[in-house]
User: What shape does this take?
Amino acid sequence: MAAKSEQTRQKLAEVALRMFREIGFEKTTMRAIAAEAGVSAGNAYYYFESKDSLVHELYVQVQAEHAERAAGALATTGGLAERLKAVLHAGLDVMAPYHRFGADFVATAIRPTSPVNPFSTASNPAREASLEIFRQAVDGARPAVPKKLRSDLPELLWLCYMGVTLFWVYDTSDGQQRTRRLVDGAAPLIARGLGLARVPGVGKVLDDVLNLSRSVRS
Amino acid sequence: MAAKSEQTRQKLAEVALRMFREIGFEKTTMRAIAAEAGVSAGNAYYYFESKDSLVHELYVQVQAEHAERAAGALATTGGLAERLKAVLHAGLDVMAPYHRFGADFVATAIRPTSPVNPFSTASNPAREASLEIFRQAVDGARPAVPKKLRSDLPELLWLCYMGVTLFWVYDTSDGQQRTRRLVDGAAPLIARGLGLARVPGVGKVLDDVLNLSRSVRS
DNA sequence: ACTTGTTCTTGAACACGTTCAAATTTGGGG
DNA sequence: CCCCAAATTTGAACGTGTTCAAGAACAAGT
Assistant: This one.
């Protein structure tokens, strides 16, 4: 079976992710991963082109689990605030075991040249999956969000999610409860804020914000 | 004179900063810095405890120059939008020579354990100086900003500045003109948006936003 | 069974950031 | 001028991520 090779690859990924969780990024050396997986250090590079690639593996797995959990949570709630809370909390739940690793993860991910960078082509599928979660959260919301916002909102919320993640990385409170409170507080505020889009003066400013955000992305 | 030692220290910092600018972070090895400064590699560690410390040196210098330039630009403008633009553009001007180095800088700075981290105690003076710029920009604005915002706004604008910096790091357009356009577009929008604070419905939401932002910072 | 081409694996090597004991230089006090 | 303690400097060493030439295991055709 050709599965022998795939087995080694998975063993490496599994060992790496466990060590990231348990002893952190720096203490998890390539040599240690290889040893624990029962292969030579050089061999690990046959399967993963760099240590960062192993972090990418983690990123992909976390995104996948986030999508799964979020979908479940979205099935039962209707209001935008509740849907947003569900999605964000699901993300935090999935990341929780990796909190001690978070800072190194972000430091790696923020490099434009890294495969882990959420804007890199290597991360395209993972980012697309993540964006899709927010599209569902917005599209399925009752009452519906104002029309003119519907197309841009998912991407903006995804950006908020990146911001929340950043906040979470720095959050040293017990079980990152500060981040939980931030989510609980911010989600209804965002939902209420969107309702203001129909207030005449606000609508004008909002249009300009959306235009700017579009022009800046292109 | 005791300046001999200080001279070596400055030579190292000067060489390091120049190399960061000219050949980037990774190619600037500690051995190369030391060689160029005419000392041994080990000796560089007598003056700087790590390569990151040299990045911190850069951060401090950039902040200082930003403060200086911003103060000059603020002397001549009154409207909040213009003042904000002046401050942000001044920041971009100062950082410009280091753009190629930006990604590595941010990756270093984002680690909570790094001396370069803007929230670290080592960065306290630099951050305080930076915050002071935004305080001046807000306090001296005519027409004045709504009272209830005046105390929180500087910190929030400083956060925006961090965001702009992040955007700038990723901005590969010629001379980072996209970031320039973002600043030109966002500054008047923020100023206009603040005017909405007096609209009844908006004020309520805004109060909650401020409360949340306060509770989350404590 | 033997050959051949591919896939997988190894172990030694490299450059890097960093550490440290030892050597050297420096600056005062006798 | 000499000596000593402190400040400075060195060069070798360590562990890291990564590379690579060489070898081992494997699959398939004859």
Observations:
- Chain A touches chain B at residues 103-104, 106-108, 110-113, 119, 169-170, 178, 181-182, 185-186, 189, 192-193, 196, 199, 201-202, 205, 208-209, 212, 215-216 (CB under 8 Å).
